[in-house]
Amino acid sequence: MSKGTIVMKFGGTSVADAGRLKRAAGRIVRRREEGYRVVAVLSARGKETDRLVADAFEVSPDPDPREMDMLLSTGERVSCALCAMAINDLGHRAISLTGSQAGIVTDTSHTKARILDVRAERIFDALDGDNIVLVAGFQGVSTAKDVTTLGRGGSDTTAVALAAAVGAEVCEIYTDVSGVFSADPRIVPDARKLDVVSFEEMLEMSASGAGVLQLRSVEYARNHGVRIHCRSSFDDAPGTVVVSEQETMEHPLITAVTHSTGEARVTLMGVPDTPGAAGRIATALADANVNVDMIIQNEPITEGSRADMSFTVPRDDVRAARAALEPLQAEIGIGDVATDESMGKVSIIGAGMKTHPGVAAKVFTVLGDHGINIEMISTSPIKISCVIPGDRVPDAVRALHAAFELSGDDTIRPEQPFGQFAS
Amino acid sequence: MSKGTIVMKFGGTSVADAGRLKRAAGRIVRRREEGYRVVAVLSARGKETDRLVADAFEVSPDPDPREMDMLLSTGERVSCALCAMAINDLGHRAISLTGSQAGIVTDTSHTKARILDVRAERIFDALDGDNIVLVAGFQGVSTAKDVTTLGRGGSDTTAVALAAAVGAEVCEIYTDVSGVFSADPRIVPDARKLDVVSFEEMLEMSASGAGVLQLRSVEYARNHGVRIHCRSSFDDAPGTVVVSEQETMEHPLITAVTHSTGEARVTLMGVPDTPGAAGRIATALADANVNVDMIIQNEPITEGSRADMSFTVPRDDVRAARAALEPLQAEIGIGDVATDESMGKVSIIGAGMKTHPGVAAKVFTVLGDHGINIEMISTSPIKISCVIPGDRVPDAVRALHAAFELSGDDTIRPEQPFGQFAS
What we know:
Two copies of one chain form a homodimer.
Chain A: E1 5-10, H1 18-33, E2 37-42, H2 48-59, H3 65-89, E3 94-97, E4 104-106, E5 115-118, H4 121-128, E6 132-136, E7 139-142, E8 147-149, H5 154-166, E9 170-175, E10 180-181, E11 193-194, E12 196-198, H6 199-207, H7 215-224, E13 228-232, E14 240-243, H8 245-248, E15 256-272, H9 277-287, E16 295-297, E17 306-314, H10 318-333, E18 337-349, H11 359-369, E19 376-380, E20 383-389, H12 393-403
Parallel strand pairs in A: 1-2, 1-9, 2-6, 3-6, 4-7, 9-13, 12-14
Antiparallel strand pairs in A: 4-5, 7-8, 10-11, 13-14, 15-17, 15-18, 16-17, 18-20, 19-20
Helix pairs in contact in A: 1-3, 2-3, 5-7, 6-7, 9-10
């Protein structure tokens, strides 16, 4: 029993029914029997969170965020209590803890709280008492002592934060897919599993639509040096390890194509060309917790005239964005606010891109050759994203995946063959 | 706003769907608009607790009690969060609190915890801040900082305990029936609603099967002088007020006939006639939290021989009773343990019984005239209970209700007509 601590996180599909929940319990117990101290983080079962959200909207058109958190936090508690029962039946001691009991302290930003501190004393006590510790994901307790939630996908962040707090060797994220792929296999059947990706690449992938890991959890892992292993809860094959760039050793030109079909474009007509107008708009959106992705402002033709400003937001944030902008319309004199909820986004990510110009040109050419109109573009040193019509997203993903030859062993690599990719 | 505080408790059927939940929210708001400070206690919605229990047994044949509490406590939290949303939509401020947040401190007896203390500071703060406070019923936090539940029907106890802690004028218990009846109206259609009953009568009624109020809540109310008003959540008619015996003023000979069909008889064959054997048995059952009702031990015929001992327990406790007795069988030399889960019980209750002998004789005669076999009998100064075959319970209830003329204005009263009974 001299081994270290492992954090294991199971998503909603991995605990959706009694059979799967018991299988997760079995995996947890196996790690314990290997000698590790185990902390497991569980999500709400299957569609439980959706059910609770529907219950809320049946009662209220605009549910109070504090109460929404009280409501939604129950889903993960149910999973943990049930899993603890199953583990106890397997002859091991397990106790479930709420986020609050686990010491996950957050700010007071209900439904999108951020973790401020992890006070893991109770977890350590339970581990010292030879318990497997199950922690309800996605939630914490605010500095005002209210239950908070971390936003959808927040259980990944819970797991990584706990892994950092307890000094875990690895944070294993168990999901219904076997790792991180070069593209969504539902769109590109010959997409391949990546054995290793860097935090930087994973950040860009999560930010641009790869659903396998939540963006904030990857940020947190990078900032705290937590090793993530993303793998399937349904088999024992190794998945994808997310590590620091130094550890990846090799840098393929392009690692993956990601996409999102849940984008909306908001266009503000006739924004006055006065200093501070854009700042006011951005502040209002940030205060409303709206995640603005790309922003474009076309230059006014003559001095003192007006410009149009467009930005993209997740489709779920359109309502909040409109509400945040409404008071500004009269105040700073904006014309109409138009929204288009049919937008999508396709991105290519690769650490090798940094040292290889010409990737952007190839992306635009490929999309152009397929008659796909590019509405907005944004780039980072290791990513190129294009906003395109939502209905063309699958075509764009397939075209780029093929053009950059990501499916086979013939992946374009700037330095040398990336051996561990052979699957 | 010079009025006092009211505690309102809504049962599961009163919050079962969005429409009912909003109606409960409306009633709560109305009390607030009348000027009262309002604390509302909610149960889990409809069949939610049953659903969670089923989930547990799907995962484990013998769910861990600590985890069962973590699981079941979520049901009331959901109700409170949803109700707070509905109240906020009605233009009032409401916040929901878990049992733990509400300061309900219990012992560590999971699934049947007892309230040790109510630390209501957070409730007072919220009330002072002009909030309606919603508290999740049925639960608390143990001295070991674990979530506990108070057993089925525990939300009544939560409500009464809070009413005592905040010095409420009244604890209103809203249910799907319009008050306490002279018998179960499903069995006796002309049973009538009682306007007032004494704590003592209500205690006996709750203990003997009247489901409308949980026994412990009535005990707690009597011990702390909390006035209970038991009424319908579906109309505005006054229900039944439970008050001290002095306040009832009048004492009908018989107030009500109650019954239970969930009884089981456990018989221990050949219990050695040694000092302490019965005590050991009773202790083992008490340690297992088995509620033993009646006990009969037939005298051994010759000194040093063995006797049979029978007792009744709620049918749900049979498993626990068997488990508790098993180690004793070898240890003190008990023969077989036989159980009969088809038992029922019928009781008549009335404060006037104290001063009027002959009631018991009449009960036995009535049951005998209807060919109903009495298996066991127990009495208190204001109650006579008979264990009978479960399938004869409805006949027995109807026969006794008729024989004691409880349905009309011609109820037998020792002193004077009990005017407020006219409904």
